[in-house]
Write a structure and sequence with these properties.
Helix content: 55-70%
Strand content: under 5%
CATH class of the largest domain: Mainly Alpha
CATH architecture of the largest domain: Alpha Horseshoe
Number of strands: 4
Number of helices: 7
Strand order of the largest sheet: 1-2
Number of domains: 2
Shape: elongated
Order of helices and strands: HEEEEHHHHHH
Radius of gyration: 29 Å
């Protein structure tokens, strides 16, 4: 057997395999599909509503865009179903932080967590109070807990990644701080386009 005939046989086998694979790309309606940039040579698609012999009425596939999920997430604690007691403690904590009393804010937020331990906004505020008190490890831990409870809420995540960046910077982890800030910026960009 010559090298040339061996090469031709391999090429013929490869073409046969490719043909089988491409024939599997056709849909039930007789349409062709493209995979990985390779399109089969199928006849053009019929007009919607046209009867195709042996197939039936051609109904084109519908493409739906996923809904914008950012609109369904609460932006602030006031947008949640937080109790009046938690909202009051949260506001008092924010006022205490603004007045430079991070220790009071921390105590108020811990009381709020005794009422609603799964509120990501309270955990996020607690992370901020920990940062004010120069407790970066506790701040990062609280921010991560907030993100976990936020279940994909980009408004929560963006703030938490900023807090995590600050905590890492305070610990001397410059690389980790850059990564966390990049994640915060990425989420903020995505929010600005919605």
């Amino acid at each position: 057997m010559s090298l040339r005939s061996s090469g031709l046989r391999r090429m013929a086998a490869a073409m046969a395999v490719a043909g089988v694979l491409l024939s599997g790309c056709a849909t039930e309606e007789g349409q062709s599909s493209s995979t990985g940039g390779v399109t089969t040579n199928a006849p053009p698609l019929p007009s919607p509503g046209t009867t195709v012999p042996g197939v039936g009425t051609y109904i084109p596939p519908t493409a739906t865009q996923p809904p914008l999920t950012t609109q369904s997430y609460p932006h602030t604690i006031q947008d949640t179903n937080a109790s009046k007691a938690v909202l009051s403690l949260y506001k008092q904590a924010q006022d205490a932080r603004a007045a430079g009393h991070a220790d009071q804010a921390e105590a108020l937020l811990e009381r709020a967590l005794h009422i609603e331990s799964r509120n990501p906004f309270v955990w996020q505020a607690l992370a901020g109070a920990h940062m004010d008190l120069n407790h970066p490890d506790q701040a990062e831990s609280a921010a991560q807990k907030s993100t976990s409870l936020g279940r994909g809420n980009p408004y929560i995540e963006a703030g938490n990644w900023r807090l995590i960046a600050s905590a890492r910077q305070a610990r001397g982890d410059a690389g980790g701080a850059v990564q966390a800030q990049a994640r915060a910026d990425e989420i903020a960009r995505a929010l600005s386009t919605n």
